[in-house]
Please model this.
Amino acid sequence: MVRGRVLAVDRLFYALVALTAVTFAGEIWFVFLKVPTEARMGIVQKIFYFHVPIAYSMYLGATACFIGSIRYLLHPSDTSDALARAGAQAAVAFGAMMLTTGPLWGAKAWGAFWTWDPRLTTALLSVLIYVAYLVLRAFAGDGAGERRFSAALGVLGAANLPIIHFSVQKWGGQHPTVITGSGGGLQHPAMKTALGVGFLAFTLLAIVLIWVHARVEMARDRLRRAEEDAIDLGLDTRTEE
Amino acid sequence: MNALQQTPNDRATTFQPVQGEAEHYNGEVLLVSAYAIVWVLLLAWVALIWRKQSTLASRLDDLQRVLDKAAADKVTK
Model:
């Protein structure tokens, strides 16, 4: 029964990987060969079709970290901790992509790689929070206290996400607001399709990578417990050759 | 005008397709750089997961060796 469930989960994972690959191939083909070039910025505007989904994927990673952290604070478990850790890793990875692709677009659109625009600044702050989370996990040990402290940081880190989202509406700055609740400013159907497929591709990619990372983290926790059991039985796994 | 002097109304709110003009490719280096960076970072992330998994495999081998040795010692006793 358990073996059957494992096989079903494996099949689901491989199907997800295949779907992600197909979606990415379709997105790249569509963005470069079908979507018209933007009138004012030219071809560099095509960065938009993955910059925005990447930023959204950073939110997904941060949300996974938040959910794992909340669950860990309420009911401590290796699974919740692994989800929080994998989510933080995703937030940093996608955040790094967001903070490099955005300035490359800005170099053309604004004439500067970086401005201390409210959205850019709050996004940078958010990525730094998750970098701090990972540094904490890497260097502070793996005891229950450290895990609880990290979970609290994971919850606090999520508090910045709405600030990033609403910063363009509440404060001054240069960051565009092309995607709006009233339909958005993409003036061609192919532009909207490219953005939609981009969201799908990066959502699938985020799910795949968070899943893989969380499984590795869970395996690490199980191995650590097995090593501790071995040591309790008088078998020192660190010194044997 | 710097970023802080602008109001929310000063933002770009639309992206429009080019009409009847030759395409502009001035930003192609920036575009290719952006794509390249995304793939490099993704591969770096996959490499990090691979390294973590390799470390786990190595620790698992150590544990297996210790357990095998303990079992062998028990038999000889």
Notes: The mean pLDDT of chain B is 80. DSSP finds one helix and no strands in chain B. Chain B touches chain A through 50 residues (CB under 8 Å). Helices of chain B lie at 28-76.
